[in-house]
Amino acid sequence: MNKIIDSSTAAGLIRDDDTVIWTTAGLSGFAEAVAIALERRFLETGAPRDLTVAHSCGCGDGKSRGMNHLGHAGLVKRLISGHTGQAPRMGELIRENRVEGYLLPQGVLAHLWRHIAGKKPGVISKVGLGTFVDPRLEGGKANAAEEELVKLVELEGEEWLLYRTFPVDVAVIRATTADERGNLSMEREALLLEQLSMAQAAKNSGGIVIAQVEYLATQGSLHPKQVKVPGDLVDYVVVAEPEHHMQTITTTYNPALSGDLRMPLGGIKPLPLDPRKVIARRAAMELVPGGIVNLGIGMPEGVSSVAAEEGVSDLMTLTTELGTYGGVPASGGDFATSYNAEAIIDHGYQFDFYDGGGLDVCFLGLAQTDHEGNLNVSKFGDKVVGPGGFINISQNARKVVFCGTFTNGGELAIEDGRLAIRQEGHRRKFVQRVDQITFSGRYAQETGKPVLFVTERCVFELIDGEITLTEIAPGLDVERDILAAMDFVPRIASELREMPAALFQPRWGGLREHLHATEH
Question: MF terms per GO, please (predicted)?
Fold first, then answer.
């Protein structure tokens, strides 16, 4: 059987009302050529219609690529995803209730495909308890969607969430090379994702598997240990042009991201002395020597820079939720990949480790926070973006450090070793009630997890179910500089400490000594 077809033929295999699942992480692992052909077919013919589309990670470039190709009313009926922030067209359809939206934890979806393949009723997990995906709150619904995809169950006297499985009609996956039988290898891919699990899910549902690749090889020429998806699980192969087979959102191909060489990084450029660096320095004090670490996007990325500048990178292993170990996690359009990684494992296997408490500490972004320690990073007003891996990571890491500026939009500077607040921020982060619960402070307290909130002005800890002010920057006044910019009055520790003054100096040099002291 000749499995090689063009992208237009592949798009023609997708029928009205099909459930179509896609591998993706930004544009990594995404079959862009197939998505373009599917969009073109719909705009020219009006078919297919009313698809259910599912993917675990964010998918797109924030503009027109990725899942934005499918952002047309009528083409998609339902989206089940971990994140929509990179697909604004799809996000707008969800906001307008023109597409049913379900936003579920990324790690749960990464596991769901395996459970579909095994004909299991669903993923049973504690991930999501007490958050917006808990059916006692919102059940993961992003709009007026009505079907219940998440169910609260009791097993052995404990509460769990059951994330229901569903049949898959089409899996659209990606690899680097296919041989004539459809065996797939992934040598130039930056991530392994869920290709095998998705293919198995589709085949055991009676569906089809479409694989996009860059290269073709003769039958039997691929080393069997390099084959990530057996040809018996692949029905069709589409060979894409390089511009539609991006390694990441911004990179066509970098061998240091796929492990094909180790590039000289020349050292990570130190951050300038500003509030972000102060936050990163104070957060880095929570690193665990010998620990396994996850750094979120944005402000937490500064922890890696500080660790390198302070010469302590060798004391920890940085990981990403997409499966990389070691090296230097990439940022920007390459986020979720790593330069010079020591190992790259499948997405679902990484979340097995994360969900089981394998992370010693995680550093995640600080957005809306309330007095109970609840955090919201998934919904702001009527704009929904989803949790990504935030719920899995924050709920199961042994220690959680949220990092961010105290308010949004302020004008701050470091002057003479002190923080200067030149203009207060226009949007408060510490609010009476978060718009949506992405992290449950109550659940964290029940499980005894240490939780810190690190800002440039102060540090809070979650103590006995309340946000508690434990540290303040040198020279600041609690009433004027902290409480006046909050919507609630936090508990104030009886022994309020001053943040280390050295954090506000051009040179610090004290992190290694601090971390060694915490070992004993």
Answer: transferase activity
Whole-angstrom distance, CA of residue 140 vs CA of residue 112? 15
Q: Which tokens sit at 335?
A: 């986020």
Q: Which amino acid is at 206?
A: G
Q: Coil, helix or strand for 455? A: coil
| CA-based R_g, the chain, Å | 23
Spatial distance between the Cα atoms of 27 and 11, rounded to a whole number of angstroms:
19
Query: Following DSSP, what letter does each residue of 424-435 receive, concatenated?
Result: --SEESB-SS-S
User: Which DSSP string do the residues of 83-148 spell out, in sequence order?
Assistant: --TT-HHHHHHHHTTSSEEEE--HHHHHHHHHHHHTT-SEEEESTTTTSTTSTTTTTTBSSS--S-
Q: Show the beta-strand stretches assigned E in 280-337.
A: 291-295, 316-319, 324-325, 328-329
Measure the CA–CA gap between 333 and 412, rounded to whole angstroms: 27
Dist CA 314 CA 312 (whole Å): 5
Tokens of 168: 């898959």
Cis check for the bond before 506: say yes or no (omega within 30 of 0).
no
Q: What's the token pair of residue 120?
A: 């299991």
Catalytic residues: 321
Helix (H) or strand (E) holding 200: helix 195-204
Both tokens of residue 91?
């996000």
- As separate numbers, helices (DSSP H) first and strands (DSSP E) second, the chain gives 12, 35
Alpha carbon distances (Å) from 430 to 153, 375, 426, 489, 517: 33, 9, 12, 10, 32
SS3 307: helix
Q: Comparing C-alpha atoms, which of 345, 48, 15, 13 is closest to residue 197?
A: 345
What is the chain's pLDDT, residue by residue, as a tens digit (520 residues)? 699 999 999 999 999 999 999 999 999 999 999 999 999 999 999 999 999 999 999 999 999 999 999 999 999 999 999 999 999 999 999 999 999 999 999 999 999 999 999 999 999 999 999 999 999 999 999 999 999 999 999 999 999 999 999 999 999 999 999 999 999 999 999 999 999 999 999 999 999 999 999 999 999 999 999 999 999 999 999 999 999 999 999 999 999 999 999 998 776 678 999 999 999 999 999 999 999 999 998 889 899 889 989 999 889 999 999 999 999 888 889 988 999 999 999 999 999 999 999 999 999 999 999 999 999 999 988 888 999 999 999 999 999 999 999 999 999 999 989 999 999 999 999 999 999 999 999 999 999 999 999 999 999 999 999 999 999 999 999 999 999 999 999 999 999 999 999 999 999 999 999 999 987 6
CA-nearest of 395, 392, 367 to 381 is: 367
Contact predicate 391/455, CB 8 Å: no
